[in-house]
Amino acid sequence: xxxxxPRVLAxxxxxxxxxxxxxxxxxxxxDAHWALGRSAYECARAWCPEGETPxxxxxxxxxxxxxxxxxxxxxxxxxxxxxxxFDTLPGEPRNADVNAIAEGxxxxxxxxxxxxxxxxxxxxxxQVLESAVQRIARDEPTNAITxxxxxxxxxxxxxxxxxxxLGDVRYQLLTGIAGAIAFAREQEASVAVFVVHExxxxxxxxxxxxxNMRDLxxxxxxxxxxxxxxxxxxxxxxxxxxxxxxxxEGGTLPALYIAKVRRVTRSADNLGVFGxxxxxxxxxxxGASSGASRGAARGGPFDEKExxxxxxGGGVYLVENASGFYxxxxxxxxxxxxxxxxxxxxxxxxxxxxxxxxxxxGERFGGLGRG
Length: 371
Prior knowledge:
Layout: E1 7-10, E2 13-14, H1 18-25, H2 39-47, H3 58-67, E3 74-84, E4 94-103, E5 108-116, H4 125-137, H5 144-156, H6 171-186, E6 191-200, H7 206-223, E7 255-264, E8 304-311, E9 314-321, E10 324-331, E11 348-351, H8 354-365
Parallel strand pairs: 1-3, 5-6, 6-7
Antiparallel strand pairs: 1-2, 3-4, 4-5, 8-9, 9-10, 10-11
Helix pairs in contact: 5-6
């Protein structure tokens, strides 16, 4: 596919360089957030590499191809720091880090990008609501409660969730997804894709990337009603069915997808957990292999076991003992074997740390349901 340069626009001005981007579409908070390794700068650098014409980052191109029926759609125009209203309430509109339009032979695709290094996805919805109650108590006007209720109804419907109550959802993810839908409707696109573009740099910390991974995965599990437990990096979610009303009434609702992509710029001696391909996170010498001898997972009975995800005919279990943290994949009947003192290495994967296991599971099995 041709990698013809897209038009990058802000305030009706065409952007050609990263300096142009900073001048007309730099962060609202000023130079404090325009720094090497942080999301505003890294996002601009991904679209406007130094000394080159603007281009679509390869990881974003991959998501566009997945969202296209023909696999040949390409981004033609992108708008950094682009504002879109998803409701009629007073207040600031949704401000996407980048909104873009891709054209294919049979569809138009709207892409709304949230750039993240290891900054959080804003406040929880509970914090937003608590702040609104405090404002009401001071006789100050606020539309926050109505906005949250409308967002929840439009995206989640009326179904409640015990695993992720509304108060624990990150508010920025709700507004980002709603903004993606509104942008698609504004552009008369048949497909809306909300993309988290993650930047793993020497200035970011693994534990904060893990927090963001948990928050995004929990949101995906709730909005898909348990059909997916997470969002593997570089892969489009299954189509997400949402109510739309009361925010999006009249006309056709665009097909909605969510994706996460990652760009790693960490130095080779500082890759950590999030800077390495997930396949490299297993403990050395403990990977699964066909026909391997039994006994590689010895070390006494497993102390804990938890169903992580389920596919057709089997499940993915998390277990651990004194020798490490394990992921066990199984046929349905294999759950009974988790009390055994040994398991076949063709079904067990050992990790030195809980973080490595969690990231590996999210990348490999995030597309499965909870069962």
